[in-house]
Amino acid sequence: MAARYLPRFYLEGFRDPGAAAQASLWVYRAPLGQWRATRLDGQDAADRDFNAIADPALAAGPDPEARFAADAADLGALLREHVPSRRPLGAAERSLLARFFAFLGVRRSPRSGVVDEAEAAAGEAALARVLEEMGWVFWEAGDAGWFVTSSSPFLVSFPHREGDFVGTLDIQTPTSEVTLPLSREVALLGTWKRRGTLWRAAPEEALLELNFRTCTRALQFLASPRPAVPG
Fold first, then answer.
1. Would you state the pLDDT for residue 52?
2. What is the Cα Rg of the chain in Å?
3. pLDDT of 168
4. pLDDT, position 66
5. Parallel, antiparallel, or unpaired for β 155-157 and 177-181?
6. SS3 171
7. Relative to the CA of 161, which of 34, 42, 68, 108 has its CA 20 to 30 Å away?
8. pTM
9. DSSP conformational letter for 13
10. Can you tell me the distance from the alpha carbon of 39 to that of 45, in angstroms, rounded to the nearest whole number?
11. Per-position DSSP letters for 119-154, written without gaps between them
12. Are the beta carbons of 149 and 213 closer than 8 angstroms?
């Protein structure tokens, strides 16, 4: 089977809580033009539309299941239990999350296939350090809808600059923001405008904007607990 795009401990947060295990996640790929119910374990040939997508860029980098094997249980608990319950994050927990976020930011960027291994590893370490310094706002979907994820869920944007996205400005630019869906219920906003960690209920416009940002980088697929993107 081809390398996984995203580890199971992350995707578990986007599964349909009411679905059977064999059809626990909805995936959309543009070539198919439809949503398909897909297994998370990717053991069947029918799951080639998700876990077994052929992408040369994946072969050059580390497999996320192997990279985070030792931390999978801790990361899964943080993403699906700790953060949604609004429990404060300790330094070690924040560092672990930052390392995982940086992995997604560098290794699952649409440009990852043109970056050599040494540069990618250095960029991943540097990004993790920067993310730890940023303020973290956890947006909660609540009854307003749900968050979706994609093959490249990590996005750096510069909302006060016309049309600027990743690669055009430094992430340490004061107006830069990081967005990353963490589960169907919670999404991360990284910002320099505040410090520490906050939880906020996402109004409809925030939920739609966060999902829009996720969709802009979904070159391979979208994944959702339901066969739709809110709005």
1. 57
2. 17
3. 39
4. 87
5. antiparallel
6. coil
7. 108
8. 0.88
9. G
10. 11
11. HHHHHHHHHHHHHHHSEEEEEE-GGG----EESS--
12. no
